[in-house]
Design brief:
The complex is a heterotrimer. By secondary structure, chain B is α/β, with parallel strands linked by helices. Chain B is built from 6 helices and 6 strands; from the N terminus they run E-H-E-E-E-H-E-E-H-H-H-H. The two termini of chain B are about 20 Å apart. Chain C is globular, with a radius of gyration of 21 Å. The chains are: A alpha/beta, B alpha/beta, C alpha/beta. The interface of B and C includes residues 23, 34, 37, 39 and 62 of B. Strand 2 (about 65) of chain A pairs parallel with strand 9 (about 205-210) of chain C.
Chain lengths: ~250, ~180, ~350
């Protein structure tokens, strides 16, 4: 009998706590599949954030370290500097990485830390109940922008991939999405590249994954996927913003 | 035996290294020593000072409100540190740069033209060693040779400077003799 | 080892850490501790270690968190305002039960404060400082030699109890030079770090974590920590007494201030005052029993600090009302002189020897 589908070894056999329709589960799986394919599960140390994916340490079947809000890249730096031969990754949301953790992510990229960051951008604070994030779109409603985000009051959403791609120390920066199967396949390819570049010692790697939050967006899962495609893609264009080839 | 000395001057006059040499030499002679610098914005430009204590016993406070001796290499240091010296103590004045006198009458004042002597030796930077020589001769706290021994440690890699510094020490000592 | 060399406190602390097997240092510049990271940046690359200047104190302590979690002996240092920034990470490290050494070369506060020596971070170091039910072991050296010895021991204590240890100096300890001798530290019987995140080959994954969402579990965890702290209190108290045998009055001071008290004590003894000195070396755990016992013997205590009065509260708690506890302090970077302390003691004793 040929097994055509199953749980990746790099995921624990544990039920996710994520809301129905949330795409965190897909992204976890993509990371786990990549770890399996590269055979690095036993060589990997993951750093979990604060936010919806705070419990990521219960899901990934490798050594895990739970960091304080926004500090995952600093924690990952500490681990990688002690174990330069291991694979170290952070898994962070938009509040964690793009708000409270901007200093840590910018400087980890600037130092060209040989780590991989999976940056999940769903334009909202999920865990705390739908507050405005630095990536919340103009006009988008959140519990702390109840009239919709306005340029006058809250300014513009941060484009993290574009920003980090300007740094010399960043080796690979890509933005992907998981709103349909075709994009999920592309997302996995980007995540795999990022890990491969880390292993090859190319420098800092980050994959920004556009993700949904049906619960806090107030949409059904299907509506949420559509909302992502129609609203997030125009503001957050997909693609590779930096590759090691450009660094040379 | 316990000697507390404050050394003070412009940054660049070598007061810190003069104190360090004294502390090093004291340690090599088996004494207890401490060296405490002024630090912070003071160090950047302005005046610098350090407190050195050499003692036969465990050193209590590494700073002192009333030193046995002050060595002042410039005028602001005279104003700041002459009043602290304990009665019966010693004030060593770099008379090359300080024309003013102290109004203290209860201490011994020794004027040493440190920069003139250093210039005669061909290097104004050894003015600090002239002052240190005078100090050692006056207090007898350590033999001059112990400072020379310390130089061999402290000047590692710059041993060629030792003879000049040694001469400067001797010239300073000669002023007191 | 064995040779006495003259070293600046900050540099001696760095060398002591290296001699204790610390190969990783994450820091951020702040006066008056800069010579310590500078020293590490010169030395660690030669020891096959890593020195990294982080983007902030916040990042530095989180790098320590990562390195400690992955099994390394690791240190950071800062001075008061920087330590405030590190407090978040310190709480996580304590919660996750990781060993590390944090050096605080204390300067005057609050706020940006000043850069001269102070002891006004006593509360922060010993009473929490960050959130949650946790304790740091806090060692307070009063000389460069003691700083060297305690830093080496700090790593052993940290590993033994899986707890962060703080070495609390002040600007004077950091900047001063004194002779030091590097002696081999007493090794403790340490368990292998089989909990570290260094890759899960041949075992189940390890998780470093301070999150316990179920209150029952967190309570259990906190009581477990409490038990550990009780064990530390039982085993790790360190203090020195000077001329307490016949003392009728006791000075209590730690760190730099204890040396100034020692000067005052010599003067007072020469004048016939029967004064002794109790010098806490660990300020957490605090030498409660020693002070309580002394309270049966002396007429009173004078706590002397470079603050407006922080340790004095622990002295009062230890004395349990058996004798009056007086306080004398200078703050903001001012260092008390021996004469001021002599005068205070005479004023308290009302001229009676």
């Amino acid at each position: 009998m040929i097994k055509v589908a199953g749980r990746p070894e790099s995921l624990q056999s544990k039920q996710f706590h994520y809301c129905p329709g949330c795409t965190h589960g897909i992204i976890h799986r993509l990371v786990a599949e990549v770890m399996d394919e590269l055979g690095i599960r036993e060589e990997s140390i993951g750093v979990a954030p604060v936010g919806c994916s705070v419990l990521a340490y219960e899901y990934f079947n490798c050594d895990m370290h739970e960091a304080a809000h926004g500090r995952a890249p600093a924690v990952a730096t500490g681990i990688k500097r002690v174990h330069p031969d291991k694979v170290v990754f952070t898994y962070q949301g938009d509040g964690d990485l793009a708000s409270i953790g901007t200093a840590e992510i910018v400087h980890a990229a600037g130092r060209s830390e040989k780590i991989t960051t999976i940056f999940v951008n769903n334009a909202i604070y999920g865990m705390t109940g739908g507050q405005m994030a630095p990536t919340t779109l103009i006009g988008q409603k959140a519990t702390t922008s109840p009239y919709g985000r306005s340029v006058e009051a809250q300014g513009y959403p941060l484009k993290v991939s574009e920003m980090l791609a300007t740094l010399t120390g960043a080796a690979y920066i890509a933005r992907v999405s998981v709103h349909d199967p075709q994009h999920i396949r592309k997302a996995k390819a980007a995540i795999k590249k990022a890990f491969e570049y880390q292993i090859a010692g190319k420098g800092f790697t980050l994959v920004e994954v556009l993700s949904t939050c049906p619960t806090n967006w107030g949409l059904t899962p299907i509506e949420a996927l559509k909302w992502l495609e129609e609203n997030m893609l125009p503001y957050y264009p997909l693609g590779e913003y930096k590759t090691p080839e450009e660094v040379k | 035996m316990k000697q507390e000395v404050i050394m003070a001057g412009f940054g660049g006059q070598g007061v810190m290294s003069m104190g360090m040499l004294l502390a090093y030499a004291g340690m090599m002679e088996g004494k207890e020593v401490s060296w405490m610098p002024s630090y912070g914005p003071e160090m950047r430009g302005g005046t610098a000072n350090c407190t050195v204590i050499v003692s036969d016993k465990r050193i209590a406070s590494p700073i002192t409100p009333s030193p046995d001796t002050s060595i002042v290499m410039n005028l602001p240091s005279l104003d700041k540190f002459s009043s602290m010296i304990k009665p019966g103590g010693v004030l060593i004045i770099n008379s090359s740069l300080i024309e003013k006198d102290t109004n203290r009458t209860d201490i011994e004042v020794i004027k040493v033209p440190c920069n003139e002597i250093a210039n005669e030796l061909g290097n104004s930077r050894v003015a600090n060693m002239v002052a240190l020589g005078a100090y050692l001769q006056k207090t007898g706290i350590l033999p001059l040779e112990s400072i020379v021994k310390a130089m061999k440690k402290v000047f590692a890699g710059k041993e060629h400077l030792i003879p000049l510094n040694e001469t400067a020490l001797q010239r300073g000592a000669a002023v007191v003799k | 080892m064995g040779e006495r060399i003259l070293m600046k406190g900050n540099e001696a602390i760095g060398e002591a850490a290296i001699k204790a097997g610390c190969k990783y240092f994450f820091g951020y510049p702040i006066t008056p501790q800069n010579e310590l990271p500078e020293y590490m940046s010169r030395r660690l690359p030669k020891e096959d270690g890593v020195f990294l200047q982080a983007e902030s104190e916040v990042a530095a302590i989180n790098m320590v968190y990562g390195a400690a979690g992955s099994g390394a002996r690791v240190m950071t240092s800062s001075s008061s305002p920087g330590i405030s920034l590190k407090m978040e990470g310190i709480s996580y490290i304590a919660g996750a039960e990781l060993p590390c050494v944090i050096v605080n070369i204390v300067r005057g506060g609050p706020g940006l404060g000043g850069i001269q020596p102070a002891q006004s971070d006593y509360f922060q170091a010993t009473k929490g400082g960050a959130h949650g039910d946790y304790r740091l072991v806090v060692l307070a050296p009063s000389s460069i030699q003691e700083a060297v010895d305690l830093v080496q021991e700090a790593f052993e204590i940290a590993d033994f109890y899986r707890n962060p240890v703080m070495v609390l100096g002040d600007g004077m300890i950091g900047q001063m030079m004194e002779p030091v001798e590097f002696r081999a530290p007493q090794k403790r019987d340490l368990q292998p770090k089989d909990w570290a995140t260094d890759g899960c080959k041949g075992r189940k994954p390890n998780v470093i974590n301070s999150l316990w969402l179920q209150p029952e579990k967190l309570e259990e965890h906190n009581w477990k920590l409490f038990k550990k702290y009780e064990e530390i209190k039982k085993n790790e108290v360190k203090y020195e007494t000077i001329q307490m045998e016949d003392a009728e009055f006791a000075l209590v001071a730690y760190g730099t201030t204890s040396r100034i008290c020692f000067s005052a004590l010599e003067t007072l003894r020469a004048e016939g005052y029967k004064v002794g000195l109790i010098r806490p070396i660990t300020i957490w755990p605090f030498p409660e029993a020693a002070i309580n016992q002394a309270a049966d013997q002396v007429k009173g205590f004078l706590a002397v600090e470079m603050s407006t009065g922080q340790m004095v509260e622990d002295v009062r708690l230890s004395v349990e009302g058996k004798a009056p506890v007086h306080f004398y302090g200078r703050t903001g970077g001012m260092v008390p002189s021996p004469n001021e302390i002599v005068d205070q003691v005479k004023a308290v004793l009302g001229g009676g020897k």
